[in-house]
Amino acid sequence: MTTAVPTRESTPIEIGAEAPDFTLPDQDKKEFKLNEFKGKRPVVLFFYPLDWSPTCTKENACFSNDLSRFATHAEVVGISIDSTWSHKAWQEKMGLKHRLLSDMHRKVTKDYGLFLAAANISQRATVVVGKDGKVAWVKVEKDITKERDYNEVEQVLSKLQ
């Protein structure tokens, strides 16, 4: 009998850890560099499984409509394993206002411990990186089909100011 052992790529990053730096392309193929925000403002990394899926579509639409609630406190980006082309088509179809980062190689997803190997996607999770470059908050949704709690994210951000 074998026992599954959590790996670094599936064990969520801990609060207080230095946030792994990364550069990823967005839907417009412009580079997003996490380190450009260090010392300036917090960053919300909004990991989601897939463009076009029902929960992700609803969640990103709600998130985009309420973007001002979060953008006053932090830089906000969505991250999934989808391509820049998928992100672009989805953004245009949905009228999304936030940047969508493409992690096709799953490196960032794995570095943050949010890789769901059985489905080859990221978990639905929110990581808040403080101005100091350290992880200030992490929440992984236990049920990948359920939306995250936006009020909870807003409360965390308001306390970082």
How is this structure best summarized?
With 161 residues, this protein is α/β, with parallel strands linked by helices.
Descriptive keywords:
5-stranded mixed sheet; disordered N terminus; alpha/beta; 27% helix; globular
How would you describe this protein?
There is one protein chain. The protein is globular, with a radius of gyration of 15 Å. The longest helix has 12 residues, at 54-65. Residues 1-6 have low confidence and may be disordered. The strands form three sheets. A five-stranded mixed β-sheet has the order 5-4-3-8-9. The protein has one domain (9-160): Glutaredoxin. By secondary structure, it is α/β, with parallel strands linked by helices. 27% of the residues lie in helices and 22% in strands. The chain contains five helices and nine strands; from the N terminus they run E-E-E-H-H-E-H-E-H-E-E-E-E-H. It has helices at residues 54-65, 67-71, 84-94, 107-111, 150-160; strands at 23-25, 31-33, 43-47, 75-80, 99-102, 115-116, 121-122, 125-129, 135-140.
How does CATH name the architecture?
A: 3-Layer(aba) Sandwich
Largest sheet: 5 strands, mixed
- Bin the strand percentage: 15-25%
Strands ordered across the widest β-sheet: 5-4-3-8-9
Helical residue percent?
A: 25-40%
CATH class: Alpha Beta
Task: Report the mean per-residue pLDDT as an integer.
Answer: 88
- Tell me, what's the shape? globular
How large, in whole angstroms, is the Cα Rg?
15 Å
